[in-house]
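Quick one, T. Sequence first:
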Amino acid sequence: MWAKHDRGSDGWLPLWRHMEDSAAVAGRLWDEWLPLSVRRLIAGVLPGGQGDGRRLVVWLAAVHDIGKATPAFACQVEQLAQVMRGWGLEMRSRQAMGADRRLAPHGLAGQVLLAEWLEERYGWPGRRTGQFTVVVGGHHGVPPEHGQIQELERHPHLLRSHGPSGVVWEGVQEELLDACAGEFGVAERLAAWRAVKLPQPVQVLLSSLVIVCDWIASNPDLFPYFPEDVPRSGAERVAAAWRGLDLPGPWRAVEPAGDVQQLFASRFDLPPGARVRPVQEAVVELAREMDGPGLMVIEAPMGEGKTEAALAAAEVLAARSGAGGVFFALPTMATGNAMFPRLLDWLDRLPARGQAGYSVLLAHSKAALNDRFADLMRSSRPLAAVDVDGVGEREWRPASRDRVAGAELVAHAWLRGRKKAMLSSFVAGTVDQLLFAGLRSRHLALRHLAVAGKVVVIDEAHAYDTYMSVYLDRVLSWLGAYRVPVVVLSATLPAGRRRELVRAYAGKPTTGEAAAAFEAVARAGDYPLLTAVTPGGVPLLRRPAASARAADVVVERLDDDVQVLADRLEQELTAGGCALVVRNTVRRVLETAAVLRERFGQENVTVAHSCFIDVDRVAKDAALLERFGPPGRAERPKTAHIVVASQVAEQSLDVDFDLLVSDLAPVDLLLQRMGRLHRHLRGGREQIDRPERLRRPRCLVTGVDWSAGVPAPVRGSLAVYGAYALLRSAAALLAHLDGGPQRPVRLPADISPLVQRAYADTPDGPAGWAQALEDARARYEEHRADQAERAATFRLDTAARPGLPLFGWVAAGVGDADDTRQGRAQVRDSRESLEVVVVQRRADGTLATVPWLAPDRQGRPRAGLPLPTDQVPTPFAARTAASCGLRLPIQFSYADVMDRAIDELEELCLHAWQVKDSHWLAGQLILPLDEDCRARLAGFILRYSPSDGLEVTREEG
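Structure tokens:
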């Protein structure tokens, strides 16, 4: 009976060998890799606790491929099938079996065989078997549906041949199943398990573990096919494979002792004399008070140290729950890139406590272009089975007993690819990776395993619209079912959204007291505010004091005229200073920058927006930090300087300006922008190191026709945010706009009142605005309802009652879900975007990397590297070209324009690059710029410069 066959070498693997390999891997994973929290969840529903949990996992891994002991599978390799026929296992040829064979994929066949065996051998009722056997049926990523099961039951010849040979087939199947039950210690436990009702989250975890076991045991580099080059016993074979895999174990956090000040001083690079802020102290204390894994919402001002508070809480929560890692979910790739080094620095400061290494991951589609992550990937080694006596020293050395910090960090070779990578212990990435856990898709169980054993931190929770929130709330309900600790961060969270997040995690309140507590969550107007809840529990509220850091921001109207803006900036910056101008669209950024450069000079105006190639965007962010970052780390310009930016300035960058000019935006985002204003003390509380007229923070609000009876935002802002959010923002700010210096926005005191007012369900604004607000609200509610309805199409259901099998769990799903432009569009309500790799076409027709790139960290030139079209470019040139990826703006997201653009770009399909050895460039759309950095595409003219990024204009005529 065979399980694996290599057509190239004709090597093969007997089924019994693969069953033993898989079972052995399962035991190793349970003992050495699986986080304690996951083991507890599985063991907690079984009468024999941890012992039963391990036995169940090992047994299911052993029997997962029993469906290969069927004619429908065995007929696929004729020479092996012929040997089996010689032993009485008759079967038709693959051709003779025809299309019927597809009714019996070996996972489904195994599920049916295992169910029959449990019923006939152990007297299980049919209604009890599915919750266990679905693990076998779904081990290729999709649990079977009821219709598939019934169809296979109508074709028994696919499981056992007709005639006398059927008895032989049945005997072999039973012999294998009996052997597994005896060998792996479940024969005497099956009677007790018959009464068990497995919760669906446990079924998911069992399914995912069997998938992982199968993938590892199916790797011929670790488990060679027969005939083996080096004959080994079963134990030697497994030991060599496990040593070769060298999979880092989970984080085993120990709750930190001592006070919070000591904890923060040991984990973070605090400035000299810095003290822990009240919010940070309260977060750690609340984490220590919680009576089990739960959700904590941290609402505190920008720059208050929420990230550090979340990591400190994660350490406490992981120690108490048994979580084996952390996933830090952020809204964008840029914020993910900014968080990754902070996560690594924190990990370097964690006590190693004898652990050899942690697996880490930067989780987004362009992570391989991040230098820190690329370094970690280069440091990992390829997989190969290693004999126990065949090496001297492991690559990851255990820490010595007197070492207190610094386990080695690795991007493990096996933990790569879109389906396995999230299994790494420590992950920083886009929130899409979390939202995919709520999307019905293939191998969804692996995504659930990836988060079930971690502490999950969700940053910028206010940044997610209705469409994304539909997925986030469903994921939170599953995280609650898994007892996953979750920390949610926001500076500007509406109270209603706070209640939705807490209820999604905790579940529907079952008593009047609990319902009243959830209502109190929605009414709480305190700020800062901490909210905590456990699954099925009652929310707790904590109201820490704000830190002494405060700022009174004077808010003024400014006419939407670029010349008026230039005049005002000239007036404000007479003695120097740094101003930030935030526009809501890239077009307005570029138009504004062009005028300001005429007035202030090219060198005194910097542009920042999303339409830069990746490598330029990274360089832009670094340059902004070097000039406008925290005191002591940045060299501020000596003369007046203006940064004109889009929404990229709202988050991720710790930059500090003397003056802010902003287009009107939803009030939470406007407050985020104000967080870049006087972010740090410069010359003490009096800010004496700033120009005298800029020592009081001011925000000039523009992008609106303020002279109209109802404020009229500019067209671009309406397209981005909608009229209702902008009018509610203007209404909330009205008292401050009219009050002048006597009525500033007091940060942080006014943050929560402004946010709650702007997002309240009650009407707001002057009487003259009422009709405009009512009309805008109707359109807004219609849009929200449409978003919610569309998001629900592929959204995962909530966990059903215990004992109900996962049959059809991901039925009518989206297939594979991954971090591609198509994948992201499944969990974000955005048009599918078009991404290209930008290169330059020289006058002689050859291609090269763009000419302005600076050398890399090793000093190697990157500009103008040849990109031959008749062969694969060198790895360095190919990676350099790939780092010049660019997401084209919204003009190219409309179906007709996108189709035309793709057709034109595919005319430059370089076949020499579409090979396995060209992983950086294969499948990429190439956009060649001429020597003037221009291109024509789908009726548009594209101009690119490293200073201004991409500018798009429509071709005339």
